[in-house]
Amino acid sequence: xxxxxxxxxxxxxxxxxxxxxxxxxxxxxxxxxxxxxxxxxxxxxxxxxxxxxxxxxxxxxxxxxxxxxxxxxxxxxxxxxxxxxxxxxxxxxxxxxxxxxxxxxxxxxxxxxxxxxxxxxxxxxxxxxxxxxxxxxxxxxxxxxxxxxxxxxxxxxxxxxxxxxxxxxxxxxxxxxxxxxxxxxxxx
Amino acid sequence: xxxxxxxxxxxxxxxxxxxxxxxxxxxxxxxxxxxxxxxxxxxxxxxxxxxxxxxxxxxxxxxxxxxxxxxxxxxxxxxxxxxxxxxxxxxxxxxxxxxxxxxxxxxxxxxxxxxxxxxxxxxxxxxxxxxxxxxxxx
Lengths: 188, 138
Description:
The complex is a heterodimer of chains A (188) and B (138).
Chain A: H1 7-15, H2 19-41, H3 44-61, H4 67-70, H5 73-91, H6 116-128, H7 132-143, H8 148-155, H9 159-179
Helix pairs in contact in A: 1-2, 2-3, 2-5, 2-7, 3-5, 5-7, 5-8, 7-9, 8-9
Chain B: H1 2-21, H2 27-42, H3 68-92, H4 102-110, H5 119-127, H6 131-135
Helix pairs in contact in B: 4-5
């Protein structure tokens, strides 16, 4: 019965302190939020900490949940978790690229020979090179396929500002890809 | 239009490429995180629901400061007393069924009465104990 319930219905039950409803709700969004946090932070352990903090906030503040004023559960979680991620990024600005140092030496013609893990590191490296807010916009738009309106709500920006972030992010990604030996149009 | 089309194409290509390369979150990582989250929830109390603030009760006295009430009452009493006392004073200045204002009587006592303006006051002034003095013209 709970699996078919909408997020708002589950939130009403969570507001009454029902842990089963929270279990269902968290299971529904946990993978997505872990992915968002991991791609922004580049670190699985930190991502889980941030996501756990976000979900615990949802649990604590559920009795005050306003379905009309707060928006969807997914947007609320995205906003809280991306803000927590940005806080973490600001605290450790001196370590921008954490795991992808080796992949930067990849030869142009060797890109296709890279294994899956190396490619994943490469993507993470590209993302890590973006400024924080651009990275958040790219993660929400490209990986989570959120609409411009949802991203704007999650990042507390206007739709125009989100589009501007995405334009700059694409340019930065392309430039960084070229410096890493990836040819736009051939490899991508 | 061609530029927009090219931009959209590049956008989709980049999006597809990133999604293709990105590492998915492993199932065991999700399951482990979920277990730990539920353990944490069991030890986390919820915040109480927001209760709308009750409207402040109106004070029993009419004035914001209780000390002002006696002063206001005194002011009202003086106003009422003045309204009541005013006609009595006017009545004392009446004579022969005519009521005269205090200013008119004052003029009368100093003898400065414009006889053309008010003959009755002039007559009254002449009939007063000061009539002779007024009549002398000084």
